[in-house]
Amino acid sequence: MSVFLLLYLVYIVIFLFFSFFNLFHMVRYGFVSVGAWVVTVGYIVITLLGLFVSYYYIAQIDWNETFQILGSTNNIYN
Could you tell me which residue, 56 or 32, shows the higher pLDDT? Predict the structure, then answer.
């Protein structure tokens, strides 16, 4: 199951990488109106909320547990 956690970590790193450049361009070129401020703050709040919610649910999982798709392997040849 830890493979799923690593895949999610890769997704989060890529998301944060693109978010950094997105926020950089918003701050550098986009703060000309109140709407730009609202969009930027909303983006940051929703992103942080999503990260906290995903951490809350991920922290409850036992990552040492094995994951079997087809059931028990003991009954394959019986």
Answer: 56
